[in-house]
């Protein structure tokens, strides 16, 4: 059956659960993954990201490498999920869904 965009947008727990599943599939910590994507999207370098997330630069590099090499579908889901979680997209979705 699969997830629909409305399922993701209307429930933050569904977003977190889906992100957790993707992270586990690639042997990653979902909290670190979420934060690394968040700070990467803001243009921080790997050194600054490592300080903010509390992991080594090598760990950040590992996550970035995994992101670059993961299945496109999973990468797209991560982009959508983190955009929804951090980009204030809930407000926009509420405006356009009616």
In words, what does this structure look like?
Residues 90-98 have low confidence and may be disordered. 77% of the residues lie in helices and 0% in strands. The two termini are 24 Å apart. It contains seven helices and no strands. It has 98 residues and is mostly helical. The longest helix has 15 residues, at 72-86. The chain has one domain (5-96).
At a glance:
By secondary structure, the chain is mainly α.
Which radius of gyration do the C-alpha atoms yield? 14 Å
- Overall body shape: globular
Quantity of strands, as a count: 0
Number of helices: 7
Strand content: under 5%
Uncertain spans, ≥5 residues at pLDDT below 50? 90-98
- Secondary-structure element pattern, one letter each: HHHHHHH
Protein structure class = mainly alpha
């Amino acid at each position: 059956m699969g997830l629909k965009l409305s399922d993701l947008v209307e429930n933050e727990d569904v977003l977190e659960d889906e992100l957790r599943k993707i992270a586990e599939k690639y042997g990653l910590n979902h909290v670190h993954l979420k934060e690394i994507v968040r700070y990467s999207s803001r243009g921080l370098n790997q050194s600054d990201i490592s300080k903010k997330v509390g992991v080594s630069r090598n760990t950040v590099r590992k996550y970035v490498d995994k992101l670059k090499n993961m299945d496109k579908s999973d990468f797209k889901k991560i982009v959508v999920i983190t955009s929804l979680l951090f980009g204030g997209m809930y407000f926009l979705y509420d405006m356009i869904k009616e």
